[in-house]
């Protein structure tokens, strides 16, 4: 063998080991896997098909791969690009060459239209190298520009195993999905130490930017994983619902009967104010074992999930009457908006399951911007052009009807169940609104009978058969026929071709 | 002392637990009424109910303490 060939073999072996042993030990103490072991779990047969930039900074023994591994492997048999930070090299921090590696793998993924996975565990940018990696045209900022450009073109999946501080905190934000490992993953613009110096705030890392906080409060995180293996399992599961790019559709799976055979009509109480568990409804409707919930812990009054009907992937947006009455808030609007945008981007048909008394009212939510948040959600459900079905499970009042893809919003069909009720508001509130003064002027004993009479008249007016007769809802479907009807309709709607509008960009509220 | 707080503005309809009773995480402990819906409030903690801090019929805001648990 020539000396260079020997040197090459030795170099590959050295680089693949990552940083020095003490950092591997520290990883293990923190229950973290080495970046290459994470890739082994993520990729089919544990195999990297090819790697780019392996020799970045190979003349500097302290910087194997410059703290970053980029390349291509397969998941469920399909090619995917990846960029994995290596926390055993300078704590996974971004150097000049690792930024270049990131840019190249992003550009390759974009051109080849293959999904990209970000395996994040990085201390951020190496400040000592800042002018070579932070401000310039082809430096750090460009990785975010690329992410934004790739958004909706190819799936971008981020798995957060460790910190993602400062600028790096935007990587999961610009990705489609952020899976965070509880206890280790974090994201924040300024560290607790910086906060203490700059603002005198005393706060822990978990409170400031921990995985649980982001998955329950801020909404940055989509999945809270119990450990690294769990995070990788979730990523592979999520990827089953993703096509390779916006030109393709997600692959079908083997059709399965619903996980529960409890009849739907037993689950939905007729009394509109009585709570029930929408998960039970979904369990009796969709293919068993197919339910994958996004942002489960964030704004749980709205359920957003992937599932399958007869093997075909769908995205479900459902009110959860058991939590906050299923009423829509600012966070639920954000959650719904992001989810329908994801589904529309990647050709996943939508199913809205509506049981909502409207958007929350009151001074607290007005100050928080409930109008613009609600408008954002309604704008999002309007502009989606994938097949879109609305099932009015029970009540659907006020702008709740709009947000849940009611008849006026380009919805392919609005199906009412026998328990459905559609109105500006519920009977009691409506009678109060219209007749409050009249009722106040009446003698006490006449008030209640009058109220009852007007409520009965109101109920007749919004009777679901009346709405069906006026073609406001397209059909009323018996509970037991709902699954078959949805399967038949999605089968027909799969050839839908639609564009929403032509313009430079719409000006929706945010 | 652990606290169970309201997650929404509304009126307390009824308490589903009494002082001295054990509660577990995710158990329904209070029924509120808001936006014309009955809204079960789940416990976020486990322990024994010590004090019930509000009365049936009271208006409570998002974040108000409903029950103290030991």
Layout: helices, strands, pairs:
The complex is a heterodimer of chains A (about 500) and B (about 70).
Chain A: H1 3-16, H2 21-29, H3 35-42, E1 48-52, E2 68-75, E3 78-85, H4 96-112, E4 116-120, H5 130-133, H6 140-150, E5 156-160, E6 163-165, H7 170-174, E7 177-181, E8 186-188, H8 192-199, H9 205-209, H10 211-218, E9 223-225, H11 228-239, H12 264-267, H13 278-283, E10 292-294, E11 302-309, E12 312-319, H14 330-345, E13 350-356, H15 363-367, H16 370-383, E14 388-397, H17 399-403, E15 413-416, E16 421-423, H18 427-441, H19 444-461, H20 464-469, E17 475-476, H21 482-493
Parallel strand pairs in A: 3-4, 4-5, 5-7, 6-8, 7-9, 12-13, 13-14, 14-15, 14-16, 15-17
Antiparallel strand pairs in A: 1-2, 2-3, 10-11, 11-12
Chain B: E1 2-5, E2 10-15, E3 22-23, E4 28-34, E5 37-42, E6 47-52, E7 59-60, E8 65-69
Antiparallel strand pairs in B: 1-8, 2-4, 2-7, 3-6, 4-5, 6-8
Please give a structural write-up.
- The complex is a heterodimer of chains A (510) and B (70).
- Chain A has 510 residues and is an alpha/beta fold.
- Chain A is 40% helix and 18% strand.
- In chain A, the strands form 3 sheets. In chain A, strands 10, 11, 12, 13, 14, 15, 16 and 17 form an 8-stranded mixed sheet that branches.
- The longest helix of chain A has 18 residues, at 444-461.
- Chain A is elongated and about 100 Å long.
- The model of chain A has no long low-confidence stretch (mean pLDDT 96).
- With 70 residues, chain B is mainly beta.
- Chain B has strands at residues 2-5, 10-15, 22-23, 28-34, 37-42, 47-52, 59-60, 65-69.
- In chain B, strands 1-8-6-3 form a 4-stranded antiparallel sheet, with no helix packed on it. Chain B has a 4-stranded antiparallel sheet with strand order 5-4-2-7, with no helix packed on it.
- In chain B, a hairpin with a 2-residue loop joins strand 4 and strand 5 (37-42).
- At the A-B interface, loops of A face strand 5 of B.
């Amino acid at each position: 063998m020539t000396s260079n060939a020997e040197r090459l073999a030795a170099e590959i072996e050295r680089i693949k080991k990552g940083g020095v042993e003490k950092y591997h030990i520290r990883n293990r103490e923190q229950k973290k896997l080495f970046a290459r072991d994470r890739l082994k779990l993520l990729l089919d047969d544990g195999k990297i098909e090819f790697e780019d930039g392996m020799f970045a900074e190979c003349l500097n023994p302290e910087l194997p791969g410059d703290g970053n591994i980029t390349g291509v492997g397969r998941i469920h048999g399909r090619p995917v690009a990846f960029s994995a930070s290596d926390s055993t090299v300078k704590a996974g921090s971004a150097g000049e060459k690792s930024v270049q590696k990131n840019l190249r793998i992003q550009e390759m993924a974009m051109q080849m239209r293959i999904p990209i996975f970000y395996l994040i565990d990085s201390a951020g940018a190496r400040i000592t190298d800042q002018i070579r990696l932070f401000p310039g045209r082809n430096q750090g900022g460009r990785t975010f520009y690329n992410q934004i450009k790739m958004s909706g073109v190819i799936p971008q999946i981020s798995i957060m195993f460790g910190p993602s501080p400062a600028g790096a905190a935007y990587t999961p934000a610009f990705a489609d999905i952020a899976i965070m490992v509880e206890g280790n993953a974090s994201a924040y613009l300024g560290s607790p130490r910086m906060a203490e110096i700059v603002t005198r705030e005393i706060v822990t890392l978990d409170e400031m930017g921990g995985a649980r906080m982001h998955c329950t409060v801020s909404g940055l995180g989509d999945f809270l994983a119990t450990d690294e293996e769990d995070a990788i399992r979730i990523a592979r599961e999520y990827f089953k619902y993703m096509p390779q790019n916006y030109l393709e559709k997600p692959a079908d799976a083997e059709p399965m009967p619903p996980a529960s055979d409890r009849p739907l009509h037993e689950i939905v109480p007729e009394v509109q104010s009585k709570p029930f568990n929408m998960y039970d409804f979904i369990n009796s409707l969709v293919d068993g074992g197919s339910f994958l919930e996004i942002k489960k812990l964030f704004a749980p009054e709205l359920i957003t999930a992937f599932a399958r009907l007869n093997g075909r992937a769908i995205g479900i947006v459902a009110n959860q009457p058991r939590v906050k009455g299923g009423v829509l808030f600012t966070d639920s609007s954000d959650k719904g908006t992001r989810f329908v945008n994801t589904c529309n981007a990647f050709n996943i048909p939508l199913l809205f399951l509506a049981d909502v008394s409207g958007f929350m009212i009151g001074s607290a939510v007005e100050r928080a911007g409930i109008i613009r948040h609600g408008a954002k959600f309604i704008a999002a459900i309007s502009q989606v052009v994938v097949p879109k079905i609305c099932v009015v499970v029970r009540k659907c009042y006020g702008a709740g009807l709009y947000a849940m893809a009611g008849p006026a919003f380009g919805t392919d069909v609005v199906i009412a169940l026998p328990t459905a009720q559609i109105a500006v508001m519920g009977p009691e509130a409506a009678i109060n609104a219209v007749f409050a003064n009249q009722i106040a002027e009446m003698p006490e004993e006449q008030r209640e009978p009058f109220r009852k009479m007007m409520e009965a008249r109101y109920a007749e007016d919004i009777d679901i058969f009346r709405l069906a007769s006026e073609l406001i809802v397209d059909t009323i479907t018996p509970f037991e026929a709902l699954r078959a009807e949805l399967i038949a309709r999605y089968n027909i709607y799969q050839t839908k071709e639609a564009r929403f509008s032509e313009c430079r960009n719409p000006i929706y509220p945010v | 002392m652990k606290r169970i707080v309201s997650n929404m503005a509304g009126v307390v309809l009824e308490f589903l637990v009494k002082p001295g009773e054990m509660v577990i995480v995710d158990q329904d402990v209070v029924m509120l009424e808001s936006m014309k819906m009955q809204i079960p409030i789940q416990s976020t903690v486990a322990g024994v109910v010590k004090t019930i801090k509000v009365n049936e019929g009271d208006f409570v805001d998002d974040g108000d303490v409903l029950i103290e648990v030991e």
